[in-house]
Design a protein that fits this description.
The complex is a heterodimer of chains A (390) and B (208).
Chain A: H1 2-20, H2 22-42, H3 50-74, H4 82-95, E1 104-108, E2 115-117, E3 122-126, H5 127-132, H6 136-151, H7 154-161, H8 164-167, H9 175-179, H10 186-202, H11 208-223, H12 238-248, H13 258-278, H14 282-291, H15 293-298, H16 302-313, H17 318-332, H18 338-349, H19 353-366, H20 373-385
Parallel strand pairs in A: 1-3
Antiparallel strand pairs in A: 2-3
Helix pairs in contact in A: 1-2, 1-3, 4-6, 6-10, 6-11, 11-12, 13-16, 14-16, 16-17, 17-18, 18-19, 19-20
Chain B: H1 2-26, E1 29-31, E2 37-41, E3 44-48, E4 53-55, E5 61-66, E6 69-74, E7 76-81, E8 89-95, H2 114-126, E9 132-144, E10 147-157, E11 163-173, E12 176-185, H3 189-202, E13 205-206
Antiparallel strand pairs in B: 1-4, 2-3, 3-13, 4-7, 5-6, 7-8, 8-12, 9-10, 10-11, 11-12
Classes of the chains: A mainly alpha (390), B alpha+beta (208).
Chain lengths: 390, 208
């Protein structure tokens, strides 16, 4: 383990030097060619040790990982929240005190429920994953698992098993694919789970929460009809994994950290709710707010999202559920303008024109520069001109 | 000897003719050489701009990349371009009401308000890849040949980082959800060819 740690740091430094200095790169290239020629002449190719090959392939993967991280930093794909990033980094240090400098946490700006790791310890946690977890122990389970992939060198092993490196296919695969793959074999996932579990116990987290976050992911996969396609499904059948963790954690207990986690991630959770509504993932919204009832207490406008989710789903009784949720949102957060628009449209469709006009009026007053002002004004005028209002 | 040479020549000519006719049959592009050339799609008829080219290549197919995978949907479609589809594209589509917004699994019906249609359209587009930095410039209700609908002007960046402008009109009838859009790189092409698109749009007739 320490050997790998050392190798990672060694190669990271060497590659940074190479990137930074072109003259050095030229010298190294020429030296490498000369050395290769000498070696070829001196020894049989088969005599090159596995360690040499490991070094060179590892070096290349670290180079790709660093390049990938650098590109991400320049793009807007990294969600900038220093406070949450530092908080996650602190959790990682608790889980892996013996690898303090190796791991670097990034929040990836995507509502996917996933996390991944590169060979040299960059951990990319998706916003969707942070929103899905309801406490610190749950997110620690995910981080512990990803960290295990790094310290056990699973990426290299996995690529080798897939014969990418030996056949040279790795040369043509995309940097993203090589930087952090997420389809490890069942054996490697199992190994990462075991190491992750050990780390959770050592850091005094409640390991029972691991089964719960996987259960949440399974529920999400079910409503997205993706149980066999993605969302960690490459991990040894998600449901088997839940059982495995439930059995392992029997008799254990530990730190859960619900309040702190919610406080740190509530803005992210709200952002994911908004994105899910925008993308018509109404079932995800209802599921998230059902499993995390504290969110609607913390953010009264969550009731607006509940109303929106019912409106989008439009199943039996959803019109009433939607109306009740909007009214609750207005009661708790009267300054939140979108709720008035939503109620206006709802009453307009129910032919309750006076109510519709009243809510449209309030919406336009509260949000005079709304992006959909032209639509609402048109509906308003349409009702006015229809003669249904005296 | 002569007869054999003749036979060979005739065979060569026949093969050549076959090749030419095959190439001609499969040609997906038709140049609009005169004004008032009428295009028909479902209940729609409209005039194609002269000097543009009509493509039948994707006549019944709408491909979207959703969550990393290409998904093909069956639609009625006419594509019209002047300089190539990457530089300017007028895209006319008719979706079945039951598959109006396939990426988000949503349907359409003719009781929907224009803002509801626009909301679903935007949700649909934002699930597709190649629509980075999605910015709505304007979103407003319009009347298209006496049908209530939406007009959305938005900007996005392609996977290659090229900024595009797209103007889309959408409306629903009892027989389908229609979108008529014009997309071109923001630099030069969008403004340059917008006039032709607007002329085409003004010629729309919706047959019941």
């Amino acid at each position: 383990m320490y050997l790998i740690h050392f190798q990672v740091k060694y190669w990271r430094n060497r590659i940074n030097c190479i990137i930074d200095n072109r003259n050095d790169r030229m010298k190294i290239l020429i030296t490498s060619i000369c050395l290769s020629l000498l070696l070829t002449a001196a020894i049989d190719n088969n005599a090159i040790s596995a360690e040499t090959l490991l070094d060179s392939e590892m070096g290349r993967l670290i180079y790709i990982s660093e390049k990938y991280a650098e590109n991400l930093r320049k793009s807007d794909l990294i969600y900038q929240d220093e406070d949450v990033t530092n908080y996650l980094q602190k959790i990682m240090r608790k889980l892996y005190p013996d690898y303090e400098d190796v791991f670097k946490i990034h929040i990836y700006n995507s509502s996917e429920i996933n996390a991944s790791a590169t060979i040299d310890g960059h951990i990319y946690v998706r916003l969707g994953m942070l929103a899905k977890a309801v406490n610190e122990a749950q997110i620690a389970s995910v981080l512990a698992h990803e960290g295990a992939h790094v310290i056990k060198n699973h990426l290299l092993e996995s690529l080798r098993n897939q014969k990418w490196i030996e056949t040279g296919l790795g040369l043509y695969a995309s940097d993203t694919a090589l930087a952090h793959i997420s389809d490890y074999s069942i054996e490697l996932e199992q190994e990462a789970d075991d190491e992750g579990f050990r780390r959770l116990i050592a850091a005094k987290y409640d390991p029972k929460e691991a089964a719960k976050i996987f259960q949440s992911m399974a529920n999400e996969a079910k409503i997205r009809h993706q149980l066999d396609d993605s969302l960690y499904s490459s991990h040894p059948k998600l449901l088997d994994r839940i059982d495995y963790f439930a059995k392992l954690s029997k008799g254990h207990s530990g730190h859960i950290g619900k309040e702190t986690y919610l406080e740190k991630t509530s803005v992210i959770k709200l952002e994911c709710l908004r994105r899910n509504i925008t993308n018509y993932r109404f079932n995800s919204v209802l599921l998230d707010l059902d499993t995390n009832k504290q969110l609607s207490k913390l953010f009264p406008q969550s009731w607006f999202y509940i109303g929106e989710a019912y409106r989008q789903r439009a199943a039996e009784n959803d019109a009433n559920n939607s109306e009740n949720a909007y009214l609750k949102a207005i009661e708790l957060k009267p300054g939140f303008a979108p709720t008035y628009r939503a109620l206006g449209i709802l009453y307009m469709k129910k032919q309750q024109h006076p109510k519709a006009l009243a809510y449209f009026d309030k919406y336009l007053a509260k949000s005079p520069d709304a992006q959909d002002k032209l639509y609402i004004t048109e509906y308003y005028n349409e009702i006015k001109n229809s003669g249904s209002i005296q | 000897m002569n007869t054999e040479v003749n036979k060979k020549s005739i065979a060569k000519i026949i093969i050549l003719l076959c090749c030419v006719s095959l190439v001609a049959c499969s040609s997906p592009w038709v140049l609009v050489t005169r004004n008032n050339q009428t295009l028909k799609l479902g209940q729609l008829s409209l005039q194609a701009p002269s000097g543009w080219v009509i493509s039948n290549e994707h006549a019944n197919q709408y491909a979207a990349i959703v969550e990393g995978e290409q998904v093909n949907y069956k639609v009625d479609r006419i594509m019209v371009t002047k300089n190539g589809i990457q530089l300017d594209l007028i895209d006319i589509l008719r979706f079945e009401l039951s598959e109006a917004f396939p990426n988000i699994g949503e349907t359409a019906d003719n009781t929907m308000l224009p803002s509801e249609l626009a909301e679903k359209y935007l949700a649909e587009k934002q699930t597709e890849s190649g629509h980075d930095d999605f910015t709505i410039v304007k979103n407003e209700p319009v009347s298209i040949a006496l049908n209530r609908g939406f007009r959305i002007h938005y900007q996005f960046k392609s996977n290659e980082g090229l900024q595009y402008d797209k103007l889309v009109y959408g409306f629903v009838t009892t027989k389908g959800f229609y979108t008529i859009s014009f997309r071109a790189p923001a630099l030069h092409y969008f403004k340059f060819n917008l006039v032709d698109f607007n002329t085409m749009l003004n010629s729309i007739v919706i047959n019941s």
